[in-house]
């Protein structure tokens, strides 16, 4: 049974989340302040964290950064902030996924399950997948590292998944719906989810949307990672 740490200061919302998550088979612990959450993660690490941003003692974004300084525990951010720049900041700070309030209990449970699937260590007996090479881009799926022009790219878990997926389908235009289905495993998400991560990838790879090197948007169709930039 996976353990979820719910970091939420509103007692009504906190109680509702406990009921929903317990009903989906999760063990649930709670914290209503940022420092309390950090102590829990340090002393009794959960399998995953649901983090509200509006906490009484610390801003949730600061809590997220502190968590990333001490732990690799997956973090799903629950936020009322739907501004694209804010979402990019959350993902760059180490969030594994986010949900914009209000959301259903079923959607929360599905997102948690998806994040946990992606964060589960691979079976060491499995065959090591080959390194992906696209031009000067090198991706190691096992080590989950990516290098461009000999420089390691510092990517979030989801950014790496997206880049590796596009590299595995180099020179193919991949529709956003297919990407959401095969990378996120959640085809009902908004296309903007892909675009937010694509924007972050471009920035970290030193590209611009108007003058791309590898990551190209084919208007009305999807995204392509080209092998001959």
Q: Secondary-structure element sequence? A: EHEHEHEHEHEEEEHHHEE
- Any idea of the CATH topology of the largest domain? Rossmann fold
- Total helix count? 8
Separation, N- and C-terminal Cα atoms: 47 Å
**Total number of domains:** 2
Segments where pLDDT lies below 50 for 5+ residues? none
Radius of gyration: 18 Å
Could you describe the largest sheet, including whether it forms a barrel? 5 strands, parallel
Percent in helix: 40-55%
- By DSSP, the count of extended strands is 11
CATH architecture of the largest domain: 3-Layer(aba) Sandwich
Looking at how many chains there are and whether they match, the oligomeric state comes to single chain
Cα shape: elongated
Overall average pLDDT: 87
Give the CATH class of the largest domain: Alpha Beta
Please list the strands of the largest sheet in the order they lie side by side: 2-1-3-4-5
Structural class: alpha/beta
According to CATH, the homologous superfamily of the largest domain is Response regulator
Q: What is the beta-strand fraction?
A: 15-25%
Please give a structural write-up.
This protein is 40% helix and 20% strand. The chain is of the alpha/beta class. It folds into two domains: 3-119, Response regulator (Rossmann fold, 3-Layer(aba) Sandwich); 132-225, Arc Repressor Mutant, subunit A. It has a five-stranded parallel β-sheet, sandwiched between helices. The model has no long low-confidence stretch (mean pLDDT 87).
């Amino acid at each position: 049974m996976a353990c979820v740490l719910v970091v939420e200061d509103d007692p009504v919302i906190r109680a509702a989340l406990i009921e929903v998550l317990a009903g989906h088979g999760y063990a649930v612990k709670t914290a209503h302040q940022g420092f309390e959450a950090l102590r829990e993660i340090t002393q009794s690490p959960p399998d995953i964290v649901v983090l509200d941003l509006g906490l009484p003692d610390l801003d949730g974004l600061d809590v997220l950064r502190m968590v990333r300084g001490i732990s690799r525990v997956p973090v799903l951010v629950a936020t009322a902030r739907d501004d694209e720049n804010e979402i990019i900041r959350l993902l760059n700070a180490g969030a594994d996924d986010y949900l914009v309030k209000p959301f259903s209990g079923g959607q929360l449970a599905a997102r948690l399950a998806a994040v946990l699937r992606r964060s589960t260590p691979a079976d060491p007996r499995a065959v090591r997948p080959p390194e992906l090479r696209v031009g000067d881009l090198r991706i190691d799926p096992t080590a989950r590292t990516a290098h461009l022009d000999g420089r390691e790219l510092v990517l979030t878990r989801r950014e790496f998944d997206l880049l590796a997926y596009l590299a595995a389908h180099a020179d193919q235009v991949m529709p956003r719906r297919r990407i959401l289905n095969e990378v996120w495993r959640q085809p009902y998400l908004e296309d903007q989810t892909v675009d937010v991560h694509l924007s972050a990838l471009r920035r970290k790879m030193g590209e611009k949307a108007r003058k791309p090197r590898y990551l190209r948007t084919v208007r009305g169709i999807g995204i392509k990672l080209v092998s001959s930039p």
